[in-house]
Fold these 2 entries.
Entry 1:
Amino acid sequence: MKTLIKNGTLITASETFQADIFIDSEKIIQVGVGLKVGEDVEIVDASGKLIMPGGVDPHTHFDLPMFNTVSSDDHYTGHKAAAFGGTTTVIDFVPHEAGSLKENIDNWHAKADEKAAVDFSFHMNITHYNDQVLAEIPSLLNEGVTSLKVFMAYKHMKLSDGQIFQVMRLARDYQMLTMLHAEMGDVIDFLIPEALAAGHTSPEWHALTRPAWGAVETTLRGIAIAAQAEAPLYVVHMNAGGEVDMLAYARQRGLPVMGETCPQYLFFTIDNLRRPDGAKWICSPPMRTAADNQRLWEGLSDGTLQTVGTDHCPFFYDGTRPILYEGKEIAIPGKELGKSDFTKIPNGLPAVGDRLPILWTYGVGKGRITANQFVALTSTNPAKIFGLYPQKGSLMPGADADIVIWDAERRVTYGVRVAQHRTDYNLFEGWELVGFPEKVFLRGHLIVDRGKWLGKTGMGRFLRRQPFSELV
Ligand code: URP
Ligand code: ZN
Ligand code: ZN
């Protein structure tokens, strides 16, 4: 199928210019002014519209079992929601359960491959440490998995500093990238039972038992461990202003460390957890303060932070009441599981489809970041960092034709009815947006057209990623 997208304004991570894009056999073939093409070419007039590479979300959790339930978007519904928001590539985390790492990855393929509706890849969690796990890490390259996540929190998942050091060294030797969940597990594991014993069961205690200083210190500690291992590091879901300071400190000293934040940490605070429906905002790490929101925005604007992911891990607010999804009733146990105990509220929230529209209006629209930074943060940088560039995150000839035609004028009152997540709420309910995806192409196939879903289950392809090479 051949397509010519004419007269649009291309926005890349570094440039803005007028050009046409010619697509054939799922690839961008030519980019130029006044392109002439033959017969049998679908013409799409993008006059007055912006053209950007499809979003790359480096942080999702689809169909993830936890808290006696499962995250409510699977690898089809979550991919579809991503596409509606202009994201055409997602990287999901494979949990480290019993069995070999390869068996865990095979299990995740069994869940994802037939459902996938956009292109996807996997990161591997390393939450158990032994000689067998270490011996198997290098062979992940054969699976196209080139990034590992380690945790400093969660009782049954965290590794010791020495173990993290060993994983980082091994990752470095095989050109893999280590990702870090930075929270101070030992203190959290003390504060939670203490809060419960004192009768503190409401959602705000989720945040109060996971203090920001723990996130700040573990970010620096993770950086220091990576420096000693001479390994690159990517800090996920950065949420506290002090973490940005730590990253800046390290980058100013030339260390190969990078950071991601997520939309929820740019807008919300512990006050949201104090609302009667505060469970909607429960995720780990938690929401902080307005000053933290502000410092994270500065980090995006001044280049200290490299990516905006989502940590999309949705649950129903009330999983006893079905919603209609593609014409069928569905209800999945969710936040109500922790009605009387914050430690039983499933951790996570919907965001994969919100990321681009929200960041456009409140980032680019409010002058906090430029349109080029928007593309860098949401597409090009994650593609580079995770070994997908220039196949993804690019509008250059040879790249996959993952393209978003963006209507910068379109006004949308956002919320659960517009977002396509399979859940019963949206954190940005009623927010007024200016700028929204109009058409979304996955490898040249039109999958979203003015709010109409044209994609199909199974059309997303697994992306075998390149070893880590590009520091941004
Ligand atoms: O609450 C969240 N974000 N759940 C996902 C797990 C994680 O640490 O990313
Ligand atoms: Zn995490
Ligand atoms: Zn996560």
Entry 2:
Amino acid sequence: MAPTLTEKQPKHGFSVFDNMLKNEHEQVIMCSDPSSGLKAIIAIHNTILGPSLGGVRMWPYESEEAALKDVLNLSRGMTYKSAVAGLNLGGGKAVIIGNPKKDKKEAIFRAFGRYVEGLAGRYITAEDVGMSLQDMEWIRMETKYVTGISMALGGSGDPSPVTAMGVYMGMKSCAKKVYGSDSLEGRKISIQGAGNVSTHLVRLLHKEGAKLYITDIDEEKVERIVRETGAIAVDTDSIYDVDVDIFSPNALGGVLNENTIPRLKCDIIAGGANNQIEDESVHGPMLIERGMLYAPDYVINSGGVINVSNELEGYNRERAHEQAGRIYDTMTRILEYSETHNVPTYTASNSIAEMRLKQIGRVKSIYASRSHFTGRMGELVGRR
Ligand code: NAD
């Protein structure tokens, strides 16, 4: 006899619903288009604050389970990032399963665009790892729910100057806490990565009179920054050993781990890279034991999503910079919460995001018909 719905089913392997329930995801969309070969997953974590927004990445995942785990994790991260940044956006993310070096073709991205369009604004996409401007343009041929488009097309263009501004202001807030002054003049700062974010960050730090140390696997990029700012070039592995006030990771994730933390000689870690702590439960306490103040990455690198959210409301670069500047106050609030409640900074930022979700959730249920969006966002999500 077939089991009834209420009967307990034996558990076999990975369960999508168990994983969705664990972190309270609203919706997961499996996209399969045999004619183009598209296999993608869109995850909408939370839309309490507004439509879910997050990039789409293309990656050759070794299994569907790995792809699903990644998209669930990343979409949840976007909910927290937007919530703590004070934005009216929810958390979402998408992954296209495939090798960005071999599997790209117009039909795949257009098929993906049609799935995004079908969600009618519940998910808004953007460029992420493995994607190019051309790929985003193909997606945009099928849907208007795309952000991070070029300035020539009326979008916000490169987000990295705004991201760098947020990292800089978050760093200053940490300096104020540790040194009693937020001036970075004369502070020794080591920077991992000489890419887009770092290029703008070093300009701000150099202007303020910081003493800079820079590394990258790409020597040309390092040389450019050395020429421009007089920074001292360091090789990629030695960056963890430089005796500095502040270490700023702006290249890769997972750089704070058991191999690197014991080598670090700094008071503050504040950088733009995503997912800097390899395992929060293990490596978070290691940072605290060593008395290092860690600025939660998703808080101080939220300038990118702040930039894009501005695009939705009618883009204005000055306003985007000004909003990214407020990351200083957000960071200060996190530091106060962390001290008052005696919790790590990354726990404090999660709590502050959750408080906002709870409070706004309550307000939304009362004023559900009001829309706070104007400009392009108003057009996209309609007056709800
Ligand atoms: P980018 O690709 O321009 O720069 C990254 C740099 O890191 C590259 O120059 C690369 O050569 C270098 N690198 C790679 N491996 C390295 C290693 N082992 N040691 C030293 N350098 C290494 O990227 P970006 O846009 O500057 O972003 C940097 C980080 O910030 C990424 O983690 C990204 O996810 C995050 N982030 C960026 C933005 C943004 O607006 N661009 C927004 C939020 C978060």
